[in-house]
What we know:
Number of strands: 4
Bound molecules: FE2/S2 (inorganic) cluster
Radius of gyration: 18 Å
Low-confidence stretches: none
CATH architecture of the largest domain: 3-Layer(aba) Sandwich
CATH class of the largest domain: Alpha Beta
Structural class: alpha+beta
Number of domains: 2
Amino acid sequence: MSKINLTSVPFKGTKKQEEELRAALADIKKMNGALMPALQTAQGIYGYLPIEVQKIVSEELNVPLEEIFGVATFYSQFKLNPVGKYSVSVCLGTACYVKGAGNIIDRLKRELNLEEGGTSADGMFSLAATRCIGCCGLAPVLTVNEDVYGKLVADDIPGILSKYGR
Ligand code: FES
């Protein structure tokens, strides 16, 4: 089982977002199989599914929080952490992996002091692993938002992060 990294970024949901979610859930809960659309709607409103939001879904759908948490962590479409201003993604597809993507992500974890799936407390950086992004000729590859970096070695990482204020 992989480790689940919950963010240390404080939850900043507003009353308006909560009202919007509760109103949407009032309709959704009448559906069969309401849980997935409920979580998709909640993520659409907040951008991710912190425990505070999972509790609202639990209350409104009358579904135990453990079940909500289980679904939110099982499906990769759901995010438990907010995405940082700079979303750093390392391709762990086969071509990148055999060319040393493991070293790249290890170096990023050290430099950013983050685990995979985590977001820094200042909300600036989040770190994720992705599948092949179709740039295998540049392996190993990482992206920072829309920027693509290829043919990487671990020592390239500090210079790349410095472009984003690190
Ligand atoms: S395997 Fe990494 S870009 Fe294809």
